[in-house]
């Protein structure tokens, strides 16, 4: 399966939609996309893993890095990872990533959109 990170919108927020396998080979592409997203100075953004087929510890490490960078920049980050995506949720749950960043099961759980740029 091909890997892609696309800039999209989820729940009215800027988002990075990840498709394919997030692993050692592809995690740097997510890192670049996160850095570009943070450079735009959003108030918040979403990493959407709904269409991610697999995630290993390298992908998890990249999500943790993204959460740290977002927090340091004062940016609210949500990771959308539905329970039905067992391949991704297994890694998230085993590594307890929910203690590092908000992991949500649905778009509705993200809540009200924040403006996409700071005043």
TrEMBL record:
Q: Which GO molecular function annotation, any one, does this entry have?
A: anti-sigma factor antagonist activity
- CDD domains attached here? STAS_anti-anti-sigma_factors
Question: What Gene3D superfamilies does the database record attribute to this sequence?
Answer: STAS domain (3.30.750.24)
Q: SUPFAM superfamilies annotated for this entry?
A: SpoIIaa-like
Per UniProt, residues of the STAS domain are 3-117
Query: Where are the membrane-spanning stretches?
Result: none
PROSITE patterns reported in the protein's UniProt record: STAS
Q: Which InterPro entries match?
A: Anti-sigma_ant (IPR003658), STAS_dom (IPR002645), STAS_dom_sf (IPR036513)
- Matching Pfam families: STAS (PF01740)
Query: Belongs to which family?
Result: Belongs to the anti-sigma-factor antagonist family.
The protein, known as: Anti-sigma factor antagonist
Q: Which organism is it from?
A: Blastococcus colisei
């Amino acid at each position: 399966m091909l890997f892609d990170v696309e800039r999209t919108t989820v729940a009215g927020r800027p988002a990075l939609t990840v498709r394919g396998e997030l692993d050692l080979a592809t995690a740097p592409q997510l890192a670049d996309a996160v850095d570009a997203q943070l450079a735009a100075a959003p108030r918040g953004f979403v990493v959407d893993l709904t269409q991610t087929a697999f995630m290993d510890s390298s992908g998890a490490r990249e999500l943790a890095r993204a959460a740290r960078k977002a927090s340091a920049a004062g940016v609210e980050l949500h990771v959308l990872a539905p329970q039905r995506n067992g391949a991704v949720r297994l890694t998230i749950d085993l590594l307890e990533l929910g203690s590092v960043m908000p992991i949500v099961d649905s778009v509705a759980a993200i809540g009200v959109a924040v403006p996409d740029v700071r005043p």
